[in-house]
Amino acid sequence: MNLREHDHADGMAVWLSTVDSDRLIDAADTKEQEIAFSLGVRCGLRSHEILQVRPSDIVDTDAGTMLVIEHGKGDKYRETPIPSDLATMIQTAAEYGDSDADAPIISVTSTRSLRRWVKRAADQLADETDDTRWRHLSTHDLRRTWATALADADVDPLLALDWGGWNDLETFLDHYKGAYSPEAQRRNRDKVAWL
């Protein structure tokens, strides 16, 4: 986990490692929360986008399984990759739940509720791990973590822009790719014999 002070706001920006992302998802109280956290950290969705996801938004394309975001920021359409296990989880939840393919998979309708879910899970992890950095985690940090993971995996920056719905590379670099992932730092530390 990496933290950095926000440039234009109080508080800290957080980037989770792969292990920490898994810990957050595992800390979910319900399958619905697990899906919500995964949509943030594995698909890079904004809070309001997480609340809109329907099973019918999962489509198979020549590029692989994608998640359609019909009304992203500025009401813009985009498609972003979705892990197959998350796609299956969403489709299964719809099949065995009370919702249909055209209803949002997340039952809460306010981003405030989503923020409370993340805060509760982060506070629990802070208590369990004695790592107070968890207390700084916000819903938006999940998207930030996803963007950094894409950069760390050498995804073409222009493709990352397309998947994430950013307008320009400068915005992406200034606000999302602000820290190297712990994995990237570890790989580079391993290059230095005395570290």
How would you characterize the overall build of this protein?
Helix content is about 50%, strand content about 10%. The chain has nine helices and five strands, in the order ββαααβββαααααα. Strands 3-4-5 form a three-stranded antiparallel β-sheet. β3 and β4 form a beta hairpin. α2 runs antiparallel to α4 (about 85-95).
Short note summarizing the structure:
By secondary structure, the chain is mainly α.
Topology:
Elements lengths: L1 E4 L6 E4 L2 H9 L4 H13 L3 H4 L7 E4 L2 E6 L8 E4 L2 H13 L14 H19 L9 H14 L4 H8 L4 H7 L6 H8 L6
Antiparallel strand pairs: 1-2, 3-4, 4-5
Helix pairs in contact: 1-2, 2-4, 2-6
Q: How many domains is the backbone divided into? A: 1
Structure class? mainly alpha
Shape category: globular
| Beta-strand proportion | 5-15%
**The CATH H-level homologous superfamily:** Intergrase catalytic core
- Average pLDDT rating: 90
* H and E order: EEHHHEEEHHHHHH
Question: What's the number of helices?
Answer: 9
Query: Sheet with the most strands?
Result: 3 strands, antiparallel
Please tally the β strands and state the result. Answer: 5
Strand order of the largest sheet: 3-4-5
Q: Which topology does CATH recognise?
A: hpI Integrase, Chain A
Assign the CATH architecture. Answer: Orthogonal Bundle
Percent helix, as a range, is 40-55%
- What is the gyration radius calculated from CA atoms? 17 Å
CATH class: Mainly Alpha
Separation of termini? 19 Å
Oligomerization state of this entry?
Answer: single chain
